[in-house]
């Protein structure tokens, strides 16, 4: 199946800036810039455009052009919705605009296409897990992402029961602001839709240390709703349809799906116990792996000192 084609028809300066942003960021779309309605119309006589991004002032001019699957308007804040097209606020970071476009693609069943296939890409899946509290596993996982981001494209996925990302969700006036994360990803997986890579791109954020991240669930029950089939689909899409070379799962719960994830991952990192009680819990977890027939995972897991990173 072909990649999805995104086109833009706007003023030259804006189009050039948006085009420059896309060209400097790995993405999963084909992209074209049109400088006039005439050139757009000429192209659509022979080819189809999946999504056209254009100024709200252009809506009437392109209304009769065939071969455009979906139109998204760039609004300056005054768009009234009279043309019945979805709108995106024009004057915001290009990255945020692209995330909103990805969300439109993921949710619109009429848009057919797939993300770029990366079948030859070598993806390393890393799980960080602790069978006991106070190990510093989440801090270790984030620092690990920071260190790897210097030479690789890295994604951090938080799969904890409780949110440890408050520093990214508090507004300047100290209000909690919900930022879309794993709850939305899980809901999308449950809908059995086939454009998960685009949904992931719509909820992925970028950390100043150079790695991307997906925030945790809003409700812990979302994690426990994931099945082993869901987990296999999720990791398969990460491997084949995303740009990432390394994905770090910060896991804070155990069920059949998380055990399946541990089995899929190339590396399972556990913290070094600090006392006999922590060691007993860790050994109990290892025995759980063995009882589930995960001998290879149990043999290949690595014990690391997490508080020193």
Notes on the structure:
A hairpin with a 5-residue loop joins strand 8 and strand 9 (212-214). The protein starts with a strand and ends in a 5-residue tail after the last strand. The model has no long low-confidence stretch (mean pLDDT 87). The longest helix has 16 residues, at 276-291. It folds into two domains: 5-107, Ntrc-like two-domain protein (Rossmann fold), CATH 3.40.50; 124-308, P-loop containing nucleotide triphosphate hydrolases (Rossmann fold, 3-Layer(aba) Sandwich). The chain has 309 residues and is α/β, with parallel strands linked by helices. It contains twelve helices and twelve strands.
Outline the biggest β-sheet.
7 strands, mixed
Q: Can you give the helix content as a percent range?
A: 25-40%
Q: What's the count of strands? A: 12
Stretches where pLDDT is under 50 for at least 5 consecutive residues are none
Structural class: alpha/beta
Radius of gyration: 22 Å
CATH superfamily descriptor of the largest domain: P-loop containing nucleotide triphosphate hydrolases
What's the average pLDDT?
87
How many helical elements?
Answer: 12
Brief summary:
This protein is α/β, with parallel strands linked by helices. Helix content is 38%, strand content 19%.
Task: Name the descriptors.
309 residues, Rossmann fold, 2 domains, seven-stranded mixed β-sheet, five-stranded parallel β-sheet, 38% helix, 19% strand, elongated
Which helices and strands appear, and what pairs or packs with what?
Blueprint lengths: L4 E5 L2 H12 L6 E5 L2 H8 L4 E7 L3 H4 L5 E8 L11 E3 L4 H14 L16 E6 L7 H12 L5 E6 L22 H9 L5 H8 L1 E2 L5 E3 L5 H5 L3 H14 L4 E6 L4 H9 L2 E5 L4 H16 L3 H6 L1 E3 L5
Parallel strand pairs: 1-2, 1-3, 3-4, 4-5, 6-10, 6-11, 7-9, 7-10, 11-12
Antiparallel strand pairs: 8-9
Helix pairs in contact: 4-7, 6-7, 9-10
